[in-house]
Design a protein that fits this description.
single chain, 370 residues, alpha/beta, 7-stranded mixed beta sheet, 42% helix
Length: 370
């Protein structure tokens, strides 16, 4: 993946309004197969593409593949646009080194730009440089969330948007954008940047991030060895190496400890509830001894009296239990929805059925045998 501050462009519909700043992000074809794709939330796909292919782990359609196929593109086929017919902007009567800049650039943008910039599948888009030279673009895919790129389905994403392109088209666009720079200071910065690119870098550009997917199941020691081996080639303090797989494992362990803590708290609550119910039912019986005596006097048998008490206790226990569960589940769903609102992940509410069932069962047993 490649992304640089000097690659800022403007993204807009064909009418050039509204438009917002965006940054070009070059990706390889296997990008989605190199990330933790469980958190890849796809949006709309370009129907002009016959087959996207499936991701290895999740089985979702590989939306990035649309950047590497030419299905449904409107090809220009030339290398000049001196009359501004295709690019709709001044090209200063000069040749463009690659006709790819006059053909449609295949891009992937965030789902939130549907509202923020009126960009959608099938809507012609423009990439405009800071020198007001434009390049036609075709939206291949909309993404809600994806690891490694700040995509969002909210319209506020237009203020920090990213535009995914293939590494080949990234190189062509970057070279043209850099060639358009006229300020001496900017030209000097570009020259220094090119000189800082390590020898042998693919596509002749520096990379901002590199994702590595293990080809098989690996142990913690193997991942640590690979992580330490990568650090031997890093001589910049700001460059960091993360083991995403280990981070997921550590998070799952933390959640497990939290669940065990909740179970312990629930067990303590069950014990306290048992004694509270026992004391409550005993006090209820003692307070209603006079009423029970009258009922016995009018002819109710001991069995009838026991049934009356049990029915009353069960009705109170079930009514309070159902009401408490409804209130608790409602609050839990509200908190979960707020969490999903900020993280933009699918809403998921898991009820502790074992703890819930044991509490109900203990309450029923207490009401019957107290």
């Amino acid at each position: 993946m490649c992304i640089r501050d000097r690659d800022r462009v403007f993204l807009s519909p064909l009418c050039q309004f509204p438009r917002a700043r965006s940054r070009l992000v070059g990706v390889e074809e296997n990008f989605l197969n190199s990330i933790y794709d469980e958190f890849y939330l796809p949006g709309a796909y370009d129907p002009d593409i016959s087959e996207y292919g499936e991701l290895q782990n999740s089985g979702k359609d590989d939306g990035v593949r649309g950047l590497f196929v030419n299905d449904g593109l409107q090809s220009y086929g030339g290398d000049k646009d001196s009359k501004n017919v295709v690019a709709r902007a001044s090209m200063r009567e000069k040749s463009i080194e690659s006709s790819q800049t006059l053909d449609e650039i295949k891009i992937i943008v965030a789902e939130g730009l549907k509202i923020g910039l009126s960009l959608d599948i099938g809507v012609p888009a423009l990439i405009t440089s800071q020198q007001n030279n434009t390049y036609r673009a075709k939206i291949r895919h909309l993404i809600k969330k994806v690891p490694g790129v700040p995509f969002s389905q909210y319209q506020q994403v237009q203020f920090y948007s990213r535009t995914l392109v293939s590494m080949q088209e990234y190189y062509v666009l970057a070279e043209n954008l850099w060639r358009e720079a006229e300020e001496p200071i900017l030209q000097q910065q570009i020259t220094e940047y090119k000189q800082s690119i390590p020898d042998g870098s693919t596509y002749g550009v520096a990379k901002d991030k590199m994702f590595i997917m293990y080809g098989r199941e690996t142990s913690e020691n193997e991942r640590a060895q690979l992580q330490n081996g990568l650090k031997n080639f890093i001589n910049i303090d700001t460059t960091m190496v993360f083991d995403t797989y280990q981070l997921v494992i550590d998070t799952e362990r933390l959640l497990l400890f939290l669940e065990l803590a909740l179970v312990l708290i629930g067990f303590i609550a069950i014990v306290l509830t048992f004694f509270l119910l026992l004391v409550s039912f005993i006090n209820n019986i003692m307070e209603n001894v006079w009423e029970y005596g009258i009922l016995r006097a009018v002819g109710l048998t001991t069995l009838n009296m026991q049934k009356l008490y049990i029915y009353e206790a069960l009705s109170l226990t079930l009514a309070s239990g159902v009401l408490g569960c409804c209130i608790g589940m409602g609050i839990a769903a509200l908190i979960a929805s707020q969490f999903a609102l900020f993280t933009e992940l699918p809403l998921s509410v898991d009820a502790p059925w074992i703890l819930l069932g044991s509490t109900f069962a203990l309450g029923i047993l207490t009401s019957v045998f107290a």
